[in-house]
Amino acid sequence: MPTPTYADAVRYVRRHPRINTSTLSDGLGICWSLAPDYLERMERAGVVGAIEDDGWWPVARIEGPPAARKPGSAANSTALRRGSPPEAQRPAETPTLPSPPSATGNNDTQQMLDKLREAARVLMAERENMQKLRDACRLLIAEREAWKRRAFAAEARMLTEEATEMDRQRFNALRRVLARELHPDYAPADPGDISLREALFKSIWPKVKQIERKGRTS
């Protein structure tokens, strides 16, 4: 899309009683630094007046009310048509032209415009810095969440490993108890008791071994 021209800016400004750089920039969709240049050209061309203290330019009106007719002009024109001179012929007064603006006022205006431009540049730089800070904060928050998930996963693995180790220790203790209570080598001298313990040991111990193998492979 082409950048709006100065003529486009003038047509846009004519529709407003007052204008400032932000309104012109947002309304035309131009960069912020181009709006003051357009407004300065309009001020020199008489489209807008001098900038006011609040940063707004008053827009000059193209069409004004009709000038009031001076008293006696109709009588003078009638007398001239009849050929009689008017009562008094006064020389036309030379209009007083406004004095040109002083160099001091121009310097003050230029300094104020320079300060406004510098403030605009500083504002844009601060906006860019704020955006960079927001992006950095978002990255830090994402990293924090990732580390939190890793910590939760590590804690879960640690609890699982601790539980597995405790189960293994309990199983080994139970196996030692069964071996001590049922193995024939630890049986008393009573032959009947020996045969009963041996039968129980042969029945239970393979199941203990099977449980142990499953625990190692899981």
Give a structural overview.
With 218 residues, the protein is an all-alpha fold. Among the domains are: 1-60, Orthogonal Bundle (Arc Repressor Mutant, subunit A); 157-217. 67% of the residues lie in helices and 2% in strands. The protein contains six helices and two strands. It has helices at 6-13, 21-28, 34-45, 73-82, 103-182, 191-217; strands at residues 18-19, 57-58. It has a two-stranded antiparallel ribbon. The two termini are 67 Å apart. Residues 64-95 have low confidence and may be disordered.
How is the secondary structure organized here?
Layout: H1 6-13, E1 18-19, H2 21-28, H3 34-45, E2 57-58, H4 73-82, H5 103-182, H6 191-217
Antiparallel strand pairs: 1-2
Helix pairs in contact: 2-3, 5-6
User: Rg to the nearest angstrom?
Assistant: 50 Å
End-to-end gap? 67 Å
How many β-strands, per DSSP? 2
How much is the average pLDDT?
Answer: 75
Helix content: 55-70%
